[in-house]
Amino acid sequence: MPDLPVVLSQILVIALWLGAVFTVASLMRRVVPHPELVRKVVHIGTGHVILWAWLLHCSIYLCLAIASLFTLISYLSYWQNILPFLDSVGRDTRGVFYYSLSITLLVAIFWRIDQPQFAVLGVMVMTWGDGLAALVGQKWGVHKYKIGNNQRSLEGSATMLLTSGIVCYSIIHWLGYPEPWLISMPTAVTGTVLEAISQGGTDNLTVPLATALVSFALCSQGLQF
Question: Cys-Cys crosslink for 206: which of 80, 173, 176, 194, Cβ 3.0 to 4.6 Å?
Answer without folding.
Answer: 194
